[in-house]
Amino acid sequence: MSYPATRLNKRLRHLVMVILISSFFVISPLIILYTTGYRYDFKSGKIQETGVISIDAMPRDAQVYLNNVLLNQQLPIRLPNHAPGTYTIAIKKSGYYDWNKEINVESKQTTYIKNITLFKKSLPILITNKNNIADWLPNKTGNYWLTVNHNQATYEIQLYNTISNQFIPIWRGNTSVQPKISWSFFNDLGLAILTYKDHQSILLIDPLDQNNFKEFSLNLETNDTVVYQWSKSSPGIFVKEKDDNTQLYKINFYSLSQGSQITLGLVSSTVWYAEEGNNYGTIWNVANDQKIIQKKFQTNLTGSIQLPQVINSIIDANDQRIITKSNNNSLIIIKIANGISTGENTTLNTQSLFYNLATKEWLTWSPAELWSIHDDGSIILLNRISEKINFVIPLDYYGELLIASNNQATAFNRGYYVTQEMLSNNIEINNIVADINNRKIYFDGKLGQTAGIWEMDY
Fold this sequence. Notes:
There is one protein chain. The protein has 458 residues and is mainly beta. It is 6% helix and 53% strand. It has one helix and 41 strands. The chain is elongated and about 125 Å long. It starts with 9 loop residues before the first helix and ends with a strand. The mean pLDDT is 85.
């Protein structure tokens, strides 16, 4: 038998075989490591396990770019086997503002980009002007506004529906002073304080029950101050009519015909707070020297907590913390446990407050700082801003906020610390609110020289 001529002698063939076998034992583990999520880091000279990038956003037809490269995938997107390091994410859609963020991918970790909704590029639309309107105030969801109209000696209260763009008459009369309107922090209920010649009344307003507004007469003269507090746990208000030792009672919104006045207990101070429980109510009452907060239960259980300084009001209280306001209008947050102060008191030099129904937290701000206060007493600095902060309102259920000054409004995603300017240029904002469900912003102010209530999609 003869073989074809070749330059590979026996020694070279053995060498080739050794190289191929060696390559198999070297390359195969590398392939296995690569397919199971390991990468070689040339900077550190080490093999590292990869991480995962998970992206979800609305609208779902938005385009996603990773390091400026378009991903040919539909949201939500999962990107496995990415080497640890820094990446840039961009989410884009025509007619919407871009969302950009630099992220860090870590070994054996999943980096989540979620709860992101792009904002529409839209312009404000005037929905009503301010003819004869002496005062107006939106509720916390932005669906309804209470307006007080003044025509000569007559005042009229109307309910404005931003969805239907209709004004619903509520009350009309000749009162000695302008009615005072208010909305609850905790639900979509409102009220108006009416001052007649010989007494005062509270008008209870439920926007969903527009044919059944209820007026509750108070045992107060025209020059007395109506002191009330919105109930946090159920629809209603707590009312104390006099400054001396008088009973505190609850007015329920939905049981007036059945006798809604529920007596809770004696209040001997001008500084108090009422809290409802499953079996009894609690009254937080400040002693005459304003140094002690007393807990008074209907079960006759009492306790006291030393105050760090003089206060003029109690904003909120539970079994873990008390939020108070001092005489210089600073907030003092007192942490408690088992009815006793833990000694952890925090003072915030903030003046404004808003209860975020979506995240169940108090937002409080000064002209330059924004903080959140939680039920467990934890306090978080959310942002420091160069522009003066006048309003802070929620934009979604996940914590995105709109921060507004007199002439500018900026969306702030505190989870990713991303900002997006929403309103600016020749604008004046007197009040602003967002309808989260319908993704609309309403504001009282001016655009150019035109004043009124404006609507803008976002």
